[in-house]
Task: inverse folding
């Protein structure tokens, strides 16, 4: 059953919004309600609820904080997400959009999304380009918005209508026209929207702060510029925030520090911790190490610290008998410092995986957390260095199961003195059908200098379906 | 001067030197880790490899690129020390099951991938300043320099964390590896031809226990030495090779009787 919402526009009831079924029947927003009722007899009409819509939009922008610390609602139907410096955390811009749309889809929201250099361009592309998730390459936003209709510039309907009467259909026509007459005829707004879309005028967004996020903001009488001053403020902010975290028994896993500059833009640094922490010196050190990435511009007038991710942290007795329990000596603090300096994914622990294929027998797991209890079988010889991918070598060997007599790797010939093997490893057919019959025969060999190598032959040496009998060097002992 | 006065002066000088070299400041020097072989341990002034100090390891010849024996040596020694190990890598080609085989189990090792060689030293120093680690192993392919090695050595001394700097190089005989450094000991470790798997049946096919040539090329307060040892087993112990594989034992020196 088609569904529309109706609102009073001052003179009469008009359609405020229509669902997909209603749109298919020809009902459009801003159409008189009586007209719509006449077109579709069994229409379900609900009173529009602008406050409810705004609240829902605010909730949506708060949910989008998982992608970036800076999100804002863009009434009536949009959400801004400033993903500057955040896209790589989600595997790139395209992956971020795909993830965003998928999550919204699970929640029953039909959405379109776009990434562009400026908010204006992203706004236009999201609404007027047929792709549901468009990524505009850096610098390409002007070319991308040029062919779009003038309505994409966030102009009032009467301005768009007046432009059309003058023959302006597309943004490119507006951009190529002399500014003076345009401003005299339509006021500053057209020129401003054009500049915002092209990036000539910076457009700040007012980020939302969800209610359940622990945050503390300090504003200053004089704008701050120096790293020392920021450091003092960081200590002050952390003291307050860590006290509040302690009161609710939680520790921070992710902190966002926002610098509100006097030109209205916002700089942000984000740190993550491997284990929940409310240890002020540790968190302060992590934040201060990232201070050099902040550009204070003409000055910072306020700073805000937000705990964007917190987890339960057990209380611990302050002074124990064992030194190792102090937070500064726990390895989590060290992991945090290294990981925040080198980037995510640079610190890991190895965990055993139950797989006979050597390159799959090791998994990188989080450095802090529960490690799987399994270990590798220690009776099988395993090399210290595993070459990835295995390097092809020229080898001479008797078929089917003799170790090679000699092999050539990097143009150096190694004569084999002693050898052990074969150790047969079968393909894991449950992963890929190509591994159905695949076999590797591994040999540990020692050359005349005493160097030990781990070679394998693809195939069992008899049946061609198991492999092509080529030799590879997979590791060094 | 009386002999007793001599002894007193000497003792005072020794104490002064020890203070200058920060030897006994925190008592770290007494802590050592054993190679498991009395001959190797006896050659080191502390009676074993000193903990809380910088040790430099490298392969020899073609093995300097991968440094496999050197990595196993560091792993086997650190396996005997309590605590966690930070392993700093430039390229992630380490295969943890091999380290587990010399006793360094995976739950004790935290790996760090530092893509640039200067970052390796930064991370290593960060780890060395963190009390409570058993040790830091860093695989490093750049030029070290005396200042950088001095920083690492001081950090290790202050925290008591043992540092192994595993020098790697793509060049065959890189002169960079011989430049002076502040490391307490410097080792060259390489695998050499191993003995038969069964000593009494030389023709049995198969691989015996690997053998290493351990060259102690520099040692503060000790002398350079060279040994051929059987590689670490699961407990991280090596021992001197009794018979030299495929080579006749050196002839007994003839007793000259006058």
Result:
């Amino acid at each position: 059953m088609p569904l529309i919402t109706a609102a009073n526009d001052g003179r009469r009831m008009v359609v405020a919004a229509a669902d997909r079924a209603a749109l298919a029947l020809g009902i459009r927003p801003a159409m008189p309600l009586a007209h719509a009722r006449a077109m579709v007899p069994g229409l379900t009409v609900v009173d529009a609820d602008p406050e409810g819509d705004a609240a829902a939009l605010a909730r949506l922008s708060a949910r989008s904080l998982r992608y970036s610390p800076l999100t804002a609602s863009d009434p009536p139907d949009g959400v801004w997400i400033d993903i500057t410096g955040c896209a790589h955390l989600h595997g790139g811009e395209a992956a971020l959009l795909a993830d965003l749309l998928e999550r919204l889809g699970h929640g029953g929201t039909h959405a379109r999304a776009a990434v562009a250099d400026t908010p204006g361009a992203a706004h236009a592309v999201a609404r007027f380009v047929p792709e549901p998730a468009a990524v505009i390459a850096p610098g390409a936003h002007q070319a991308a918005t040029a062919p779009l209709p003038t309505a994409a510039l966030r102009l009032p309907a009467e301005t768009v209508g007046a432009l059309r009467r003058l023959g302006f259909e597309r943004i490119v026509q507006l951009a190529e026209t002399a500014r003076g007459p345009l401003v005299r005829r339509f006021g500053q707004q057209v020129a401003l929207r054009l500049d915002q879309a092209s990036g000539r005028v910076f457009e700040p967004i007012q980020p939302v702060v969800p209610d359940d996020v622990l945050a503390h903001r300090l504003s200053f009488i004089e704008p701050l510029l120096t790293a020392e001053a920021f450091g003092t403020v960081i200590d002050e902010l952390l003291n307050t925030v860590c006290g509040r975290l302690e009161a609710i028994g939680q520790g921070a896993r992710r902190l966002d520090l926002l610098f509100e500059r006097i030109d209205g833009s916002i700089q942000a640094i984000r740190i993550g911790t491997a284990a929940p922490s409310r240890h002020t010196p540790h968190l302060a050190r992590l934040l201060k190490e990232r201070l050099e990435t902040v550009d204070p511009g003409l000055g910072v007038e306020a700073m805000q610290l937000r705990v964007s991710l917190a987890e339960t942290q057990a209380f611990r007795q302050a002074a124990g008998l064992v030194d190792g329990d102090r937070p500064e000596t726990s390895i989590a603090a060290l992991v945090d410092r290294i990981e925040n300096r080198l980037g995510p994914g640079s610190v890991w622990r190895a965990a055993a995986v139950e797989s006979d294929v050597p390159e799959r027998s090791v998994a990188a797991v989080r450095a802090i957390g529960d490690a799987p209890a399994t270990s590798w079988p220690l009776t099988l010889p395993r090399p210290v260095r595993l070459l990835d991918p295995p390097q092809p070598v020229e080898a001479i060997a008797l078929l089917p199961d003799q170790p090679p007599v000699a092999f050539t790797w990097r143009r150096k010939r190694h004569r084999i003195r002693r050898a052990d093997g074969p150790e047969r490893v079968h393909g894991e057919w449950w992963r890929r059908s190509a591994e159905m019959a695949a076999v590797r025969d591994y040999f540990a060999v020692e050359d005349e200098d005493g160097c030990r190598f781990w070679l394998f032959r693809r195939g069992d040496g008899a049946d061609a379906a198991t492999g092509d009998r080529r030799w590879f060097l997979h590791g060094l002992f | 001067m009386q002999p007793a006065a001599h002894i007193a002066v000497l003792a005072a000088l020794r104490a002064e030197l020890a203070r200058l070299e920060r030897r006994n400041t925190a008592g770290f020097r007494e802590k050592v880790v054993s190679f498991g072989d009395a001959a190797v341990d006896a050659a080191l002034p502390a009676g074993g490899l000193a903990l809380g100090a910088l040790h430099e390891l490298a392969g020899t010849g073609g093995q300097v690129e991968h440094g496999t024996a050197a990595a196993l040596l560091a792993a086997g020694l650190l396996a005997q020390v309590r605590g966690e190990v930070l392993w700093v890598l430039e390229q992630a080609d380490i295969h943890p099951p091999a380290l587990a085989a010399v006793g360094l189990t995976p739950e004790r090792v935290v790996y760090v991938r530092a893509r640039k060689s200067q970052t390796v030293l930064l991370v290593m120093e960060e780890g060395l300043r963190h009390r409570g680690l058993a040790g830091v192993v860093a695989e490093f392919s750049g030029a070290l320099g005396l200042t950088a090695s001095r920083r690492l050595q001081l950090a290790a001394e202050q925290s008591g964390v043992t540092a192994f700097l595993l020098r790697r190089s793509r060049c065959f005989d890189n002169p960079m590896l011989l430049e002076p450094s502040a490391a307490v000991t410097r080792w060259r470790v390489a695998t050499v031809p191993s003995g038969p798997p069964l000593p009494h049946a030389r023709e049995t096919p198969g691989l015996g226990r690997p053998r290493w040539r351990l060259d102690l090329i520099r040692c503060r307060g000790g002398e350079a030495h060279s040994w051929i040892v059987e590689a670490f087993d699961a407990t991280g112990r090596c021992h001197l090779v009794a018979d030299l594989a495929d080579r006749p034992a050196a002839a007994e020196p003839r007793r000259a009787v006058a």
Remarks:
- Confidence is low (pLDDT under 50) at residues 248-252 of chain B.
- Residues 25-60+70-107+123-141+155-195+207-244 of chain B form a domain with the Rossmann fold fold (CATH 3.40.50.300).
- Chain B touches chain A through 49 residues (CB under 8 Å).
